[in-house]
Design a protein that fits this description.
Layout lengths: L11 H4 L3 H4 L1 H21 L11 H12 L3 H14 L2 H15 L15 H38 L4 E6 L2 E7 H20 L4 E2 L9 H6 L5 H10 L4 E2 L10 H30 L2 E3 L18 H23 L10 H6 L3 H18 L2 E3 L1 H9 L6 H10 L5 H9 L6 H9 L5 H9 L9 H4 L11
Parallel strand pairs: 3-4
Antiparallel strand pairs: 1-2, 5-6
Helix pairs in contact: 3-4, 3-6, 3-7, 5-6, 7-8, 7-14, 8-11, 11-12, 11-14, 12-14, 16-17
């Protein structure tokens, strides 16, 4: 009840799955992990003769330090930080204590050897983001895509009045409109999954200067590259003291595109509900208004839209701030990157809201057909197109005079078709047209999306 962010109170149950990836405790644990693994890697580097290779048992003991990292460990690190006023140095001093307990005192000089705090932090933050995406966000986004896929397949042949500029336009199908979002989301999700993340492990100003001063014969570039590859990261060979974070920014921007697509979906579903062509499920106990008992509000889509907007504001700031650092280093990005879990949480919350909302709506077949039968003027497009085929220079103008701003019935169109100088077969085909059958290849288009589903 007393936390600052709604992510930690009102929405805590929906976003708690991200806590193991973005909490302060998690940041501490990742830092400890990287320091330990770096120390082990140093011991296995033949050129670093003064640090003997840790035995398998010693390696396991060292790894247990981060594998069994607890709240009490984190609190000890925070206690040390009260003195150091430096969070990464506090990690190093904490690990000195652990090495003493493990009777590995001889390795203490090689803790954080030749590194700067950014070498630890940039790897930690990148791994937190990478793992949060892979374990939590991408599966949730995939669930949303699966939900849309089900809707697209189910309503592939259900005709629907399209609206361009808010006015009646050539019909489409409900399934095809869902499939548009499927196509867009799949493309962006593929980019998100295939994003290659860069990290740096090259010292104070990206030169391996300290490393070379101690061990000039060690191939430090290869050492760093191999170390980062073990975590699924690629080496950013050219950097200042800080990671450029271009790859993280690319990932943030992909999320903003996904969120923009989902904002478009949220608003359109909202409008379809308002228009009456989608109906919402009535659930016992739910209240739509504190004063109007009849209300069933599209709250899931409104909730999604709001959270997507917050997320994109954060993502844009992250993507525009992190790749910029004055000279070789400043701390403006340090305070910003701590917040990367917040927009992912809002994005996750939006995805969950959309899945929930999509399961509570269904098309109103009656309303869909009623709309279509009220707009026979939509057939002015195919009629004028056929007339062009048969050489009518003024085809568009004739149909404009007939239909623009006028209430058109089927009888009006049939009478007009009879006056045309075109083959009888063409007249029969035009007379057979109706707004609900004028859907072009809408249904067939869905068959061209085999990655999503197959239409029976």
């Amino acid at each position: 009840m007393f936390t600052l962010s709604p992510l930690d109170n009102r929405y805590k149950h929906e976003t708690k799955s991200l806590r193991p990836f973005f909490s302060e405790f998690t940041l501490i644990r990742y830092r400890v992990l990287i320091e330990i693994e770096y120390l082990i890697a140093l011991s296995l580097e033949k050129g670093v003769e003064e640090l003997k290779p840790f035995s398998e048992e010693e390696q396991n003991s060292l790894r247990d330090v981060y594998k069994t990292c607890t709240k009490s460990h984190a609190l000890r690190i925070k206690e040390i930080e009260q003195t150091t006023k430096h969070d990464v140095k506090a990690i190093e001093y904490f690990l000195q204590e652990k090495l003493e307990l493990l009777q590995l005192d001889h390795a203490i000089p090689f803790l954080h050897f030749a590194l700067t705090s950014e070498d630890i932090n940039n790897i930690a933050y990148t791994l937190m983001w990478k793992h949060g995406l892979e374990k939590i966000y991408i599966p949730q986004c995939t669930q949303l895509i699966d939900t849309l896929s089900t809707q697209a397949k189910k309503y592939a042949n259900l005709p629907m009045l399209a609206m361009t500029h808010g006015q009646p336009a050539s019909p489409t199908t409900v399934g095809k409109e869902f499939a548009v979002y499927l196509h867009r989301l799949n493309r962006q999700l593929s980019q998100l999954k295939n994003q290659q993340f860069e990290a740096k492990l090259n010292g104070a100003t990206g030169t391996w200067g300290a490393h070379m001063s101690a061990y000039p014969k060690v191939d430090w570039i290869n050492f760093s590259t191999s170390f980062l590859n073990k975590f699924g990261l690629t080496q950013q060979i050219l950097s200042t003291q800080v990671n450029s974070y271009d790859s993280l920014a690319e990932s943030y921007h992909t999320l903003t595109r996904i969120n923009t697509i989902l904002t478009d979906l949220s608003r359109n579903i909202w409008l379809y509900i308002s228009r009456g062509i989608f109906v919402q499920e009535k659930r016992n106990g739910e209240v739509g208004s504190s004063t109007m008992p009849h209300k069933i509000n599209p709250i899931d889509f409104e909730n999604a839209e709001g959270n997507l907007g917050i997320a994109n504001s954060y993502f844009n700031h992250l993507a525009l701030t992190l790749p910029i650092s004055r000279m070789q280093r400043d701390l403006s990005g340090s305070t910003v990157i701590r917040n990367q879990g917040i927009p992912l949480a809002h994005s996750l919350l939006a995805c969950k809201s959309l899945v929930k909302g999509l399961h509570k709506i269904s098309p109103s077949v009656e309303k869909l057909y009623k709309e279509l039968t009220e707009h026979w003027e939509l057939l002015a497009e195919p009629i004028q197109t056929v007339l062009r085929k048969y050489g009518y220079i003024d085809a568009y103008e004739q149909l404009k005079i007939l239909s623009r701003g006028n209430k058109i019935t089927r009888e009006n169109l049939v009478d007009f078709i009879q006056t045309l100088k075109i083959p009888d077969e063409a007249k029969r085909e035009l007379r057979a047209l109706s707004p609900d059958t004028y859907i072009g290849k809408s249904s067939e288009l869905l068959k061209n999306l085999p990655i999503i589903f197959q239409i029976d």
